[in-house]
Specification:
- This is Cellobiose phosphorylase.
- InterPro entries: 6-hairpin_glycosidase_sf (IPR008928), 6hp_glycosidase-like_sf (IPR012341), Gal_mutarotase_sf_dom (IPR011013), GH65_N (IPR037018), GH94_catalytic (IPR033432), GH94_Enzymes (IPR052047), Glyco_hydrolase_94_b-supersand (IPR010383).
- It holds the Pfam family GH94_b-supersand.
- The protein is of the alpha+beta class.
- Among the domains are: about 300 residues, Distorted Sandwich (Beta-galactosidase, Chain A, domain 5), CATH 2.70.98.40; about 190 residues, Glycosyltransferase (Alpha/alpha barrel), CATH 1.50.10; about 100 residues, Maltose phosphorylase, domain 3, CATH 2.60.420.10.
- Helices cover about 30% and strands about 25% of the residues.
- The chain is built from 22 helices and 50 strands.
- The strands form 14 sheets. The protein has an eleven-stranded antiparallel beta sheet with strand order 1-2-9-10-11-12-23-18-15-14-20. Strands 7, 8, 13, 19, 21 and 22 form a six-stranded antiparallel beta sheet that branches. Strands 24-45-46-50-47-48 form a six-stranded mixed beta sheet.
- Helix 8 crosses helix 21.
- The protein starts with 6 loop residues before the first strand and ends with a strand.
- About 50% of the residues are buried.
Length: about 900
């Protein structure tokens, strides 16, 4: 079906899409910091919730968007015609032929509001339905329906708002669906319907429920509804349905007035308004509020604060200003205005992931709430740029999720320091988890210059699982709390640096029979989950190896930092892992590595001694460098492979039969993108090898239709590697264009100076995502592109953080360098506008900066260098060489706050 796709309107990211309901699986997020999490489709399907156990609208997955009849609705009964839905949600309008011939719809959406316009040519009636979640302390979603007579004769109609009230936990959607409706206590008041279930239904213990769900409404003049249909079966009538309710179709008088109570039924916020006579050209508006509260609601306050058109418009303006202000902290201006506007939506995505987790939108990786350990650290990459004030505190809190064995809790709760071993208490370790915290912490330190962050004390996570979940400590009970203790019963604390050391050194010794780090439960690709005994992740061995090198340099800097130190303190048990300080281990000997690690594990179960050892920072740095150097050499020597066709790259994995995964195979060449990303990014691949890798990737993984695949076709289920290969090829983790790893591939190429190759990768992600004819998604980057080119799992993806970070720090070259500002542009000629300028607005050192690159000679990357540098039109004596300029932090910190400061860099051939 042909469609022109969405188009941007103006310069603030607002986009418009004609006939949006003719594309499936579309939805839009609406959310606030108070905890209201909603989604709306072009027909106002979606959900509204504050968490897994408190859904106002029925919990859904993406298939429900077109299969369910339960949606927000607003009905008009027109004299001489009958029932018509302002949202297009009626049995009559659902026929595409009817819609295309007699109705036209369009969608406009911005940050973060959603407006659906539906106009019926036969009825001469236009409905504009605007939805948003206001920036208030209430968990509330607002909807305004504006009806306009577009004809030449008077219209007479009766309006009815209809919002189904699910009002309970997602767990009750199938099991106990009817039984939990018996708990419903339904109340009507002057402006609406309220449901407060008597109990929170849970077979582990039924608790008295306080949470309340409500739908309230008023006409534009504040006039309340004239009555209600609060019970679903009464509203739809015998043989009726939510998309053809008899109360509307037959224009029945309302069942009840304010002050009624009903018990034990499914509920609906069906609000009947007074009949209206609407003159030609005239309009009338209705405000509907959907609220989740901690107890019975103050309905008078709700009406006063939300149920007037003036207040709706004020809150909408406030909402728009709030989100635009948040997103203006980072914005790009290049030679492609459309891509710049698209990037504003990508900028929103890390914030949405912080607020929604990986749940509560129609596409979700898991639906019970919370965020995974890996998600937290990668989302913080972008939040360090977007919301820097909070991130240092956030990073500090979440180091408390590290275990003393170098593993960690896998689910992060809503409160600081709230950790869970796993969603289902399954003892698994994702071997990559220890690698991400250092990456994020390094970015924080480079941005802030706060090296002393490493010396802050923090607790450790403790639960029943020990030795990287290989054993259980049966003497441990939950009532002991979730913090590690020393032998004397005191809560043990170690520095942040100690936590980082553990997470990176333990894996170094935790190796399989080929000398690479064990795959354990899986690495970042959770689908590689069937090789716990003999599987190895070469890809993340490379990541940990580069981490050890970074950590070596970081620790060495402690001695010369302001308020620095030449010693660090660690738990005495950990010292054995810094083997070169006492008894060096032969790193070629796998049994020797494993034996040392087992000795360490035994020494920290069931508790640590609490004693500390002081170590010289330079000696610790040298130990880490020794480990890194060995790993670099090992990977280059053992894991570099060549296909019969003559292409070369790094093997990424060993399976549970201890067999190398990649290379030539009877079913075709097997290759993974992950194995290339971390070897390039971490410096394991030499410059010559990077060139060979890109050729191999282009040969075996690049697909013009869907971009860079995560892996080539393996051709069979891999029960000795992971469930991912049970997925159809070209979907999710089996051969799709998985945005996360594709963007990281681009980042790695930029980092190593392969700019044109990196740009080609980034361009493919944008081109695929923005091609609405194929991707069928709103602006933004999806989790992955499937075999048909459709964008999947929109909004909630860690790839957005990596895309922002890559564009800012690599393409525009704006990054911290231990607190100073480093400028190293890698912009290609086409990324400058017609005047030869490209710029980015970002925050650094607490100041808002506009960094402008002027390429007046229109020179290609690789042929220009940094010339004059000016700050607010004043020349800077910037220490610079061919590609890099370093501006001292002090020069920025002395600038006034609250204004945008301009740094202008002239590029010269």
């Amino acid at each position: 079906m042909a469609t022109s796709g969405w188009k941007f309107q103006g310069k603030e990211g607002v986009f418009r899409l004609e006939q949006p309901e003719l594309s499936s699986y579309l939805y839009f997020p609406l959310v606030n910091e108070a905890g209201m999490m909603s989604s709306v489709s072009p027909t106002l399907h979606g959900q509204s919730t504050t968490g897994h156990n408190s859904f106002l609208l029925e919990p859904i997955s993406v298939e429900s968007l077109h299969n369910s009849k339960a949606a927000r609705n607003f009905w008009v009964y027109l004299e001489g015609y009958g029932a018509w839905s302002a949202t297009g949600n009626s049995a009559r309008q659902n026929a595409a032929l009817f819609s295309e011939k007699n109705e036209h719809s369009s969608l406009e959406a911005g940050f973060l509001w959603h407006k659906l316009t539906r106009e019926n040519n036969l009825l001469n009636l236009r409905a504009e339905t605007t939805s948003f979640v206001p920036v208030t302390d209430d968990k509330i979603e607002l909807m305004k329906v504006r009806l306009t007579n577009t004809g030449n004769t008077e219209l007479m109609f009766t309006p009815t708002a209809a919002i189904p009230l699910y009002a309970r936990s997602a767990d009750d959607l199938r099991d106990h669906r009817h039984v939990t409706s018996l708990l419903h206590r339904i109340y009507t008041s002057v402006h609406g319907v309220e449901v407060q279930p008597s109990l929170s239904f849970d077979e582990r213990g039924h608790r008295v429920n306080q949470t309340t769900y409500g739908v309230f409404g008023a006409a534009q003049d504040g006039k309340a509804p004239v009555g209600f249909f609060p019970v679903t079966e009464d509203f739809i009538g015998e043989g009726g349905a939510l998309d053809w309710p008899q109360a509307v179709v037959a224009n029945r008088r309302p069942d009840v007035e304010a002050g009624a109570v009903a018990e034990g039924y499914e509920a609906v916020g069906a609000l009947r308004f007074d009949t209206v006579r609407l003159a030609p050209g005239a309009s009338v508006s209705y405000i509907v509020a959907m609220i989740i509260a901690d107890d019975r609601m103050d309905t008078k306050r709700v009406a006063a604060e939300y149920l007037s058109e003036q207040r709706f418009n004020e809150l909408l303006e406030q909402n728009q200003s709030y989100w635009l202000g948040k997103l203006d902290t980072l914005s790009f201006q290049s030679g492609d205005e459309q891509q710049d506007l698209w990037m504003k939506w990508v900028t929103l995505q890390p914030i949405l992931r912080r607020m929604y987790g990986n749940s509560f939108l129609p596409y979700h990786d898991y639906g019970r709430g919370g965020r995974g350990w890996r998600d937290l650290w990668q989302d913080c990459l972008a939040l360090l740029v977007m919301e820097p004030d909070e991130v240092g505190h956030l990073l500090y809190n979440n180091y408390a999720g590290v275990r003393i064995d170098g593993s960690n809790a896998t689910i992060i709760g809503a409160k600081p320091g709230e950790f869970i071993a796993d969603r289902n208490n399954i003892p698994r370790v994702w071997m990559d988890h220890g690698a991400w915290p250092l990456l994020t912490t390094l970015l924080y330190i480079h941005q802030s210059g706060d090296l002393r962050f490493l010396l802050k004390p923090q607790t450790y996570f403790r639960d029943v699982f020990t030795k990287r979940c290989r054993e259980r400590d049966l003497a441990w009970t939950p009532d002991q709390g979730n913090k590690l203790r020393s032998n004397d019963g005191r809560i043990y604390e170690g520095t942040i640096l100690e936590h980082i050391l553990l997470q990176n050194i333990v894996p170094f010794f935790n190796v399989g029979e080929h000398g690479n780090i064990k795959l354990e439960g899986a690495d970042w690709n959770d689908g590689l989950d069937l090789a716990p005994a003999h599987g190895e992740s070469v890809a993340f061995t490379a990541f940990y190896a580069s981490n050890l090198r970074e950590l070596s340099e970081l620790i060495a800097r402690l001695e010369h930092a302001p308020g620095g130190t030449d010693t660090i303190e660690i738990a005495e048990e950990i010292a054995v892992l810094l083997d070169s300080l006492e008894t060096p281990v032969d790193y070629e000997s796998i049994p020797a590595k494993q034996e040392l690690l087992d000795r360490y594990f035994d020494s920290v179960v069931p508790a640590v001694s609490g004693q500390k050892r002081k170590l010289n920072v330079q000696q610790v740095s040298e130990d880490l460098r020794r480990k890194a150097d060995w790993a670099f050499g090992h990977l280059r020597k053992q894991e570099w492979i060549r296909s019969e066709e003559g292409f070369e790259w790094f093997n990424g994995y060993y399976n549970n039969d201890a067999v190398r995964v990649e290379g030539d195979h009877p079913n075709g060449v097997r290759m993974t993108l992950t194995g290339q990303v971390f070897t390039i990014m971490g410096g394991i691949a030499t410059e010559e090898q990077v060139g060979k890798i890109t050729a191999a990737v282009d040969r075996y993984l690049k697909d013009e239709q869907i971009g860079y695949r995560l892996n080539s076709r393996f051709g069979e289920i891999q029960q000795n590697l992971g469930r991912a290969f049970g997925f159809a090829f070209g979907h999710k983790e089996n051969g799709a264009m998985f945005s996360h790893m594709t963007v990281m591939y681009a980042n790695a190429l930029y980092k190593r100076g392969f700019v044109q190759a990196g740009k080609q990768v980034l361009d493919s992600v944008y081109r695929l995502s923005a091609d609405f004819e194929r991707s069928r998604m709103y602006p933004g980057v999806p989790e992955y592109i499937n075999e048909r080119g459709r964008g999947m799992y929109t909004y909630l993806t860690g790839s957005a953080s990596w895309l922002l970070l890559t564009l800012l720090t690599e393409v525009y070259g704006v990054k911290g360098d231990y607190g100073d500002l480093r400028l190293e542009p890698k912009l290609t000629l086409e990324q400058f506008d017609a005047e030869g300028e490209a710029s980015v607005i970002t925050s650094f050192a607490g100041r808002k900066l506009q960094i402008v690159y002027r390429n007046l000679q229109h020179t290609e990357y690789g042929q220009y260098r940094i010339g004059e540098v000016a700050l607010n039109d004043k020349a800077l004596d910037c220490p610079s060489h061919r590609e890099v300029c370093l501006i001292p932090r002090q020069a920025i910190e002395t600038l006034p706050e609250g204004v945008v400061h301009r740094i202008e860099i002239t590029l010269k051939a």
